[in-house]
Design goal:
With 483 residues, this protein is an alpha/beta fold. It has 16 helices and 16 strands. The structure holds adenosine monophosphate (AMP) and zinc ion.
Amino acid sequence: MILYNTATHKREEFVPNEPGKVSIYTCGPTVYHYAHIGNLRTYIMEDILDRYMRYQGYEVTRVMNITDVGHLSSDGDTGEDKMLKGAKREKKTVMEIAQYYTDCFFADCKKLNIRRPDIVDPATACIDEFIKVILSLIEKGYAYEAGGNIYFDTSKLAQYYIFNDFTSEDLAVGVREGVEEDGNKKNKADFVLWFTKSKFDDQELKWDSPWGIGYPGWHIECSCIAMKHLGERLDIHCGGIDNAFPHHTNEIAQSEAYLGHKWCNYWMHVLHLNTDSGKMSKSKGEFLTVSLLESKGYSPLAYRFFCLGSHYRRSLVFSYENLDNAVVSFEKLLGRIAQLQPAADETVDKAALAELQAKFRAALDNDLNTSLAITALYDVLKAKTNAATKRAAIADFDTVLALNLLETADKLAKEKAAEAAKAAVRVYSDDPAIRAIEEAIDARAAAKKAKNFAEADRIREELLAQGIVLTDTREGTTWSKNC
Ligand code: AMP
Ligand code: ZN
């Protein structure tokens, strides 16, 4: 399997640290608000990675943190703790909003068929881990105390910037642009491991530490939670592209300084979902959530299908028009799958199935090319093999795509059959005059279904001329005599 590794800027053959096993760490949500569908694009694409590793037979352990403290409103070390901001906005405690938005996040994930990671750990449950690692970093000379806070000293590293081709100078200036300088830092790129002298005296969650009462920085949380559950050597770390710098850059700096060796082999970054007007945000424009899409009549799995249509390393533009196009394709696909009804004696053609699976694997082996994987799904429909084999291939692919394909298509097929059966058992009146009206009503319904509204109107007018008034209800059309 080939994966693009953001750390080396190359497509690389995936080789796990331990044969047959894969460890994956995913940056979890900052639970101060609902996740927007941009955040969820990242989690959908990471879910594909997780599911495809399992599909290939790896024993996967995937860990995710929940950021419930320490993520300041700027990814540098300025601004207010996002959790505190959220709590103030809602006049609740930090832990109350953390619980509420964590539950909402997993409810959204469930609707989108995103597997819950094997281990989910909130930052507030790992304070001892953070203190242990920070103490060791100080001891090893990688961290220092200044103005009450503990900082990581980036000048101690041979290479700090990992993920892009900018010069250190460009990045150091770029990230601080327009942001208040922290005079305690020895180097511009240094970052906070532990805050004690925060500007915000009302920080709600604080813990005792060897350096006084305070709270952890965001970056140290992910390093420690990953090492706590996945050990010293991590196979894959993922997140949205905005996390590459400074968050993941800082994670590498402190983890490798602490461990004394390379920490993570592959870095996977998902590019952003943008709106027509730019980056999606929780404060700008319409706040796009799964619930909002549902309230507009979109199924969450249609959004998942929309995301799978493009590669994770390309940014994706969200618009209702683009989503509508995906919905039309998804419904057509489901309609075609619904027609795959095998005869009772049909069996799966194993050779044909293996051929179809090979195409699917080739797509995902190619740096998780989900749009090609969807093409492999259309190839199943076109293949010269029986319905049982096609259904087996679709069920197999759907363990990764997770679009509930057969289940939804079968439901559609059942609904259609029920409709047809209902139409077929129409019992007409024995009275020829009434039967003529009933037949006219059925002809009008058929004309409407065929979108021949002129004919439907003509029938209604014709009946009206005879003094028959039609009333359309949800259960069908009723008639009465105009007197
Ligand atoms: P947060 O809750 O802000 O910590 O972000 C959760 C995840 O969503 C992180 O992996 C971010 O990198 C990612 N993310 C943030 N904005 C977007 C976006 N517009 N499109 C895709 N992923 C995003
Ligand atoms: Zn993280």
